[in-house]
């Protein structure tokens, strides 16, 4: 099984239709130039430094957290975004060699680093992790630190699960299990939780338990992941990367990739409308004692994440519009290379 097996024929790749998602545009964070300088300078302290990964980290952080007013908070969160890209780089050997032991060893070292607060000097990714955690801890309560360690552990273990239980076994993730697993592995649960640092506000339990706020967090996480999956579908298809809901839908429903793409587009539109409705409900119906400027900043920032990631991906791939559809010249190159390698 490969991702290309979902194509009815190879020429189908060039005929797949991907539509633009949002009319709304966000501007990069006003501190993005400062962030670029500081984040790249931080990353150069580590032996695995990669300029392209650092620039991608700045791009995504600047758009996903476009409203962050305090640049030191933006930098702290940007270090996690940067770490996530480097984690993918460190996973490449295990993927290239189709090795379970290599992935198990990497994840074990990362989990141990989180739980003990220590790592071997030669484990560069572990030192990155400790440094970014130290930077985040400045802005977190003890409860938030505990929650962050728990979420990081889940994040790492889900990478191992997808690699060992799905990818190595030539299995796609069943669609009804997809969100639960990928929301952890993709980092979106962490990215949303880091919003508390960005806006300097953590909803108290009394507010979080309020149906609309709790549901907004869930729906915003689903929306961010769905946008990511939709816009990154083509390069993942070419690279034999199974981590997109479009492929899970096509595999589970036994339908064409175009049908799966259209379903994903409708899911995104549904989740966007749901998030907008929940945001409006919170603004209009939450009690006066809970409706604070901080809460509304939290809600608005939650919405901006999905618009921001959409714009960052658009800039990363340099999307072009052709007859109302998205296209990227690099996609043709990707599929040609993949076919040659096969």
UniProtKB/TrEMBL annotation:
Pfam family, one: Terpene_syn_C_2
Source organism of the structure: Medioppia subpectinata
Protein name: Terpene synthase
InterPro entries according to UniProt: Isoprenoid_synthase_dom_sf
């Amino acid at each position: 099984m490969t991702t290309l097996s979902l194509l009815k024929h190879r020429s189908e790749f060039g005929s797949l239709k991907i539509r633009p998602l949002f009319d709304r545009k966000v501007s990069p964070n006003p501190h993005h130039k400062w962030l670029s300088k500081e984040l790249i300078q931080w990353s150069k302290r580590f032996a695995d430094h990669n300029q392209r990964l650092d620039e991608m980290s700045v791009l995504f952080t600047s758009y996903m957290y476009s409203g962050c007013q305090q640049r030191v908070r933006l930098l702290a969160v940007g270090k996690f975004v940067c770490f996530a890209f480097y984690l993918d780089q460190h996973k490449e050997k295990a993927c290239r060699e189709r090795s379970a032991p290599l992935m198990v060893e990497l994840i074990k070292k990362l989990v141990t680093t989180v739980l003990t607060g220590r790592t071997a000097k030669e484990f560069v990714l572990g030192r990155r992790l400790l440094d970014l955690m130290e930077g985040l801890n400045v802005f977190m309560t003890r409860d938030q630190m505990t929650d962050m360690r728990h979420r990081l552990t889940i994040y790492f273990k889900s990478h191992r699960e997808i690699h060992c239980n799905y990818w190595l076994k030539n299995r796609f993730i069943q669609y009804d299990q997809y969100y639960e697993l990928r929301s952890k592995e993709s980092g979106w649960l962490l990215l949303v939780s880091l919003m508390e640092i960005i806006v300097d506000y953590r909803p108290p339990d009394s507010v979080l338990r309020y149906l609309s706020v709790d549901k907004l967090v869930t729906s915003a996480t689903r929306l961010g992941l769905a946008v990511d999956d939709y816009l990154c579908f083509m390069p993942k298809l070419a690279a034999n990367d199974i981590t997109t809901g479009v492929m899970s839908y096509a595999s589970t429903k036994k339908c064409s990739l175009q049908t799966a793409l259209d379903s994903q587009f409708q899911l995104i539109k549904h989740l966007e409308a749901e998030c907008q409705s929940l945001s409006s409900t919170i603004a209009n119906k939450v009690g006066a004692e809970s409706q604070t400027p901080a809460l509304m900043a939290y809600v608005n920032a939650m919405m901006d994440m999905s618009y921001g990631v959409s714009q960052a991906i658009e800039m990363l791939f340099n999307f072009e519009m052709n007859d109302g559809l998205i296209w990227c010249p690099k996609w043709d190159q990707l599929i040609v290379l993949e076919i040659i390698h096969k």
